[in-house]
Amino acid sequence: MAETPLDRLRIAYADPHGIAQARKAAGARLIGYFLNSVPVELILAAGLDPIRLRGMPADTPQRAGAYMEEYFDGEVRAIFEALLADRYALLDLLVVPRSSEVYLQLYYLIREIPRWEPQARLPETSLFDLLQTPGYPTARYNLGRMKALATQLCEIGGRGVDDAALAEAISAANRLRTALANAAALWRGPSPRLSGSDALCVIGAASVLDPADAIAQINALVAEPPPELVRSGPRLLIKGSPQHDIRFTSLVESCGAVVVAHDHLGGDRTFETLVSEEGNPWEALVHHYQREIPGPRAYPQAREDTRFIALAEAAAVDGVIILHDEWDDTLGWEYPDQKRLLDARGLPVLFLKRQPYFDPPQDEQRRAVTAFIESITGGAA
Amino acid sequence: MSEPQEKMAATLAAQAHQKETQARFRTEVIEGGGDYVIADAVTPHEIFHTLDIPVISLAWYSAVIAAKRLSPYYFELMDQLGYHDGLPRYGSLPFMTTLDGDPERAPYGGLPKPMLILERLRGDFGQKIGEQWSRAFGGAPLVALDSSSVSELRPSWYTRSQHDWEELYETPRLDFQVEQLRGLIAVSETLSHRNLDMAEFRAVMHRVNRAGELVDKAKQIIARTRPAPVALPEQLTNIMAATWSRGSQWAIDHLQAYCDELEMRAEKGVAACPNERVRLLWVNNGLWFNTAFYRAFEEKYGAVFVWSMYSNFFSDGYRKYFGEDDDPLRALAARHISMNEQLHLPGWMSEWIIQQARDYQCDAAVMLVPVGDRMASFGTKLCALALEQAGIPVLTLTASMVDARLWDNDAMIARVEAFLEDRVMT
């Protein structure tokens, strides 16, 4: 059977390292980055090749455990293990954003490791010190960091970034966001054609593939969508710690629900807002990353919660599952307010706190999710 | 050697000063309705000292709550309100006193609505607590100082940070921090209807530097004198009282008296533990609800804790010298811009602590790895590795630094005793 666009996106999602190797072999100069807060537009404008990196649950901390405390988010521990295993040595540059404290700490650990493991083949690593408080001084600081990153990209072989190149890169990145927004109808629409797990695959693959390739694959998926899913369970939104892997979403769907939206750093809100293509492109880029992207440091919280509720309503969900990492110290502060917002709309919520990334308690999760689904359906699911 | 039976006069003076400060807070703020500010510990209190506005430090109030063993009550309240039990506990205790709304239970009658709440957004959650706390007070203004991050941990921060801070902390960060401080001053002046007197501000900044020099003098006395002339809990009382009042003449006078008394005790051979055989570092945050633990190994082993990060961070971390033609606001920006990072980032943390081990003639270290406050646990593994590599044995104790419910005193004492017997006294 011929490979469908969805197949190709699933493969790209499942084997990002293989994709990275293939892109590298084809001549790409790879700039790896974490999360949704590194401006890929700058990388594209410099003529370099962005690739978003994520942790893999199979990378259980072995060497990493000697240096990194177990209180880090599980995914960050997996990333550090992969780094020590030379998995990222093919990168021309690794950019670590400051938009999450554990990633900032990861940056300093990476910088410290050569002292302890001089044989480790770590990529050159740069901190992108994005700040997200509202205000003009913060915007000015962020503009300086953007220019510094552009200079560094130029120093490692990229082109100098001028306004025209940046404007074109913004347009290209927006085309990818738009393609994803169009594809979102396949999982968020009234009759979903993609599962929540496949939604994560599509979103994840979009930042692993070359952007032009990703746009082509996603547009092809939208043009030739799979048939409607044969599922009748409640429509759920998953929120909380980043869910870059599909394990939990698959578990929820195996219990009879349809996951129609994700509100976390691997989910729907990562492409909800386009960068303005009007005016000064640098200022547009600063505004976007300072104020328009989701993240644990995004502030004020009420603004973020408004966007969360808007997503839940747009996806017409019947309930919400909030899942926090085992050592979460941040998202839990939001939960009481978010529960009140959901209660006010009659939307039930299941809160799974302190969930381990490695070897999660899937039997317990399954029991909790099944009971939650039954509470929504009255046992009819 | 003679063992002191009573506290140092300086310690009594520091405690009296704390009581006077609390009495003033009660009179002027709680009863009089005067302005005051709730501020993260690592924020520019100097601005409010200059404006003569009382400051309640989050770390200080948390420590008071823990010392009064009220933390279990507030943690249970936290659970009831839906805040999960893995959330950071140290900074959340004062917030919980507001949500509880019972002034009879909270230390010093609880905190009334402040003029503003000041946070430094080092971790990811300070703004979340600050926003909700502001709302719980019925809309107290929240000023969130964002926390830029240094791109390179240049070596020997503790020797460079006093004069060479422009390069150490990086110019764009300092520019941004100065802009934030100007905003904070504007907000504070508007809300308080006061004016920041530049001459007085400059004097405050000089006084902090002078106080830091005296803390360094106290360090030199304690470091060179065996047996140590003061116990660690008394060090903390004296240094922290000066830290919270750091821009005042009182802080200078107090630290001078403290140094004089230390000199006198050193000359007379007055010792915290006359039987001192082993000198220990207490690494990482303090054990505020059980400071007696620091002295639990003196009688049996002659093992004395002579240093914690509070012993002399005031001298190494706070002093920022500037010229008469320079803007003292930039020096203030430099003071707090990487303060936590110097204590907790791998590299910076370990190089300073190894230097302190050498200066204080320490034989071993006991390191607290806090649970429920992971920010304070970051960097501890690499620090322990570095200390061991430098020939300093390390015992790590994993425990909450504020939740007495989670502390098994007998088990912890047994672990330190085993460490002393197996790795230090051999």
TrEMBL record, chain B:
Source organism, top-level taxon: Bacteria
Query: What Pfam family is a match, any one?
Result: HGD-D
Family that this chain belongs to: Belongs to the FldB/FldC dehydratase alpha/beta subunit family.
Q: What is this protein called?
A: 2-hydroxyglutaryl-CoA dehydratase
Source organism (scientific name): Blastomonas fulva
